[in-house]
Every structure is written in structure tokens, then in C-alpha cells.
Amino acid sequence: MISDTPNDLDRETCYRALQSRDGRFDGRFYTAVISTGIYCRPICPAKTPRIENCLFLPSAGAAHHLGFRPCLRCRPEAAPGSAGWRGTAGTVGRALHLIAEGGLDEAGVDRLAERLGIGSRHLRRLFDRHVGASPVAVAQSHRILFAKRLIDETGLPMADVALAAGFGSIRRFNDVFRRTYGRPPSQLRRNGTMAGTATDITLRLPFTSPYDWAAMLDFLGSRAIPGVESVEDGVYRRSFLLAATPGLVEVRRPPNETHLLATIHTEAVGILAAVVARLRRLFDLDADIAAIDAHLAGSPELAQRIRLRPGIRVPGAWDDFELAVRAILGQQVSVAAATTMAGRLAAAYGPTLPPALGNGTVTRIFPAPAAIATADLTGIGVTGKRAAALAGLGAALSARPDLLAVGETLEEKVERLCRLPGIGPWTANYIAMRMLREPDAFPSADLGLLRALETSAGRPTPSALLRMAEAWRPWRAYAALRLWTQE
């Protein structure tokens, strides 16, 4: 039974937000209008319907599941992100990211649940509770809305749009759009779409304000792996290899806009959805940052930091293995030293990016797990013990690529990570923060966190920091970023 309001909002709050077109609620709920059969964002410019005609739903997937059509005026496909699960279930959040990357295109719900370390029945229950629709319904709505974005924002041919959105055939693509929008997809294309070709595609990545873009670039820039990533002149660039296809992506934030612009250079349109999903994870675009900041601002240790710099996000990870390697290299060394070693590793064992894609700074692709599993890393400045840990990690992920993500609760994930050679509590929590998108992960023994809270009375111990951080739950990862960020 789907609730008629998101589980953290009531009908009156939703309706007031709808009446005032309050942008703070954009992406947090959708309004399905019974009298028209259409669902909208809270910011829709259309006349506000009567409250008795409104269903307030936690996700676009829930609206699609109930048979409502997306509004052509407010464009639900352009909403900031999948907010129905925020602050409720990390497992659901990871499942949504996997679905956005095409996790149900080739395999079913049982395989998706296995990748998450839970049973398929439990996964369906979690989706019903937090998203208001089944995983299959969410995947169907995602394909439709992503295809609509490509139609609106690019000049891609309709056959390429269908392929990029995960439709099995152009005929099915046309049939679904006729049922959903009441017209063929070609009639939905607007004049003046953004420039782009099949190998050079620019898309908007919306988010809710505030967003401290400078803080994000500072964090990623100081940790950018030489040859694989770069941050220059306000632009983040990185190479990638998806579905055996190399590519390059460039991300910038236009001034005074509530979206990032991502230019994706690739010859395979079928990987576009996966690229966008990874970028949303990397730049933490689905965070309900206003609610997070409001909660943390109640802490005397964080209040001034939030007042001075609102909107600091937790940077995610482009690739699970890459982030885990980077975390192991960062143990007990400076950020600069770990970055240097990661660059040497990429130069020695990473594939070369095709010259047509490289920009002079980004020239390599990060090595695959199999390459590290058999590599002799002692020649790049890695200690023997750490080299053995990296080789063991590479072998483990070669055998099971989703190994790092298994486990439902944060505690289960940290415990499983700690079983791997070379990974202790600090590394496990760091991986959980950035890779697994666990908002409450917290490396309490981190020296940077302890230094940030040092006073004239001294520096807190890790146990004292943990007690202090109880007030920051369930957003301790965001508190950690606050403490790491220089004023």
C-alpha cells in the first residue's frame, strides 16, 4: 500500500510547498493530480490543484507506478534527484544508483538484491516503504525520464536516445512514449536543444541549493590522480572505461545556476545513463543539503562553519576499486604523498586514453583490479605490506566486483571491509563515506578531525570525538567534511 505522502512530510506541508512553489522541496516529493492524471514537481508553474485532488508521492517512480503521466511544463525528468529515500535507507540509495547505472537492464531484481547483500523480498519491502514503487517500476520510470532529458537537452537521433535510455528497441521506445505522453517522442523535442553529437554530449545535472562548488573542487583537486583526473580553471575532468569503451568527462558549474554541466566524450551512447549516475554520486547531487545543514547547525562545534560556508557536500567516488586503492594508499601518509603514489600506479599499469579523447593533462585510465592483482608495486614507492594489500584487493574484486558494497547496515559494511587485508576501521569508514554513500560513516580516529576540534584545553581523543558526534547523527559524514574543509 503506497502512502499518499512522503514518509518525512505531511499533506499540509506538501500542499503549502506546492502553493508557494517552494524550490527547497523540489525533488523531495511529487504531486500526482487525480483530476488530470499528471504528476508534477512542487515548482510547477501550472495552476495549483485543489488539495483533495492531490496525491503527494516520494518519487517519480511511485507516480509512474500509479499510472500518472509526467508534466510537460515542469519536467519531472529535470528534478534535482531521487529524494524519496534520503535519510532513510542507505541500501535503497545504493540500489537507486545501481538502477540508474542500468542495474536492471540485463538482470532482474534477484541479482540486484544479491549485489546489495540482501534478499529480493526485503529489497521490495524497502522500496515500497521509502520509494513508493517496486524496483522494476523505478527502472521503467528512470528510462522514460532519462530519454525525455536526452530529447530536450541534446540533438541525438531518436534511435540513439532509445539505446542510451536502455530501451530494447526503437519500437518499444515509441510505444512507451505514446502511452506515457500521448504522442511520439519526435513531437516532444523542443527547438534550441543544447549542442551535441553522438561523441560529444552535454547534459545538465540538477541539484538543490546551496552547493559549495569551490569546496568540492578543492577536495577533489587535492586528491586528483595525476593522468586520470584534473581540476583546472573551475573544471573537473576525468577519464573512464565503461563497457570496454574509453571516455572523458568534463564538469563545470555555470554561474548562478542550480545545475552542473557535464560534457561526455564517448563513442558509446549506451553508457550515458551510467556516466550520469556516477557523476551524481561523485558530486553528491542528491543530498538534501538544506536539511543536513539545518541539523548540523545545532551543534556549537559546527554552527559557525555552516553559517560561513553552507552547502558543503560529501564527495563520492567514480569507481569503487579506484576509491578503495586511493584510501589504502592514504593510510598514515599525507594527501599529497598518496596522490603521487596513485599517479605512479596509474602511469605504470593503467591503459592509455586514446589521443582523440585526451586533453594533455588527462591521459590515462585507472588500472582494473586484475592489473593490480598481479602487479609488482614495490617499484612505485609502495611498501611491501601495502602492495600485498592492494594485490589482495585487486584479486578479490576481480573475482567479485560488487564485494565492497555487500551488507545492509553501515556496521555490516564496515565489518566486512575490515576483513580485507590492509583495511582497518579508518579506511573502512572512509570508503563507506565516499564510495558507499553512507551519510553516517565517521572515521573517528582521523587526525584531521581531531586537529580541527583542538582547543586551548587540548585535542579530543577518538572516543571523546565519537561521543561528541552522537549529536550529528545521521549526518556524521557531512560533519566530517565540515571539519576537514578549510575556512
TrEMBL record:
Lineage of the species this protein comes from: Bacteria, Pseudomonadati, Pseudomonadota, Alphaproteobacteria, Rhodospirillales
SUPFAM superfamilies assigned: Ada DNA repair protein, N-terminal domain (N-Ada 10), DNA-glycosylase, Homeodomain-like, TATA-box binding protein-like
Enzyme class, broadest EC rank: hydrolase
InterPro entries for the chain: Ada-like_dom_sf, Ada_DNA_repair_Zn-bd, AlkA_N, AlkA_N_sf, Alkylbase_DNA_Glycosylase/TA, DNA_glycosylase, HhH-GPD_domain, HhH_base_excis_C
Alphabetized PANTHER family for the sequence: DNA-3-METHYLADENINE GLYCOSYLASE, DNA-3-METHYLADENINE GLYCOSYLASE 2
One Gene Ontology term from the biological process aspect of the record: DNA alkylation repair
Keywords linked to the UniProt accession: Activator, DNA damage, DNA repair, DNA-binding, Metal-binding, Methyltransferase, Transcription, Transcription regulation, Transferase, Zinc
Organism: Telmatospirillum siberiense
One Pfam family cited in the UniProt record for this chain: Ada_Zn_binding
Coiled coil location: none
Co-factor(s): Zn(2+)
Catalytic activity entry: Hydrolysis of alkylated DNA, releasing 3-methyladenine, 3-methylguanine, 7-methylguanine and 7-methyladenine
Annotated ranges, domain HTH araC/xylS-type: 93-191
EC number of this enzyme: 3.2.2.21
Gene Ontology terms for molecular function: alkylated DNA binding; DNA-3-methyladenine glycosylase activity; DNA-7-methylguanine glycosylase activity; DNA-binding transcription factor activity; methyltransferase activity; sequence-specific DNA binding; zinc ion binding
Protein known as: DNA-3-methyladenine glycosylase II
Gene Ontology cellular-component annotations: cytoplasm; protein-DNA complex
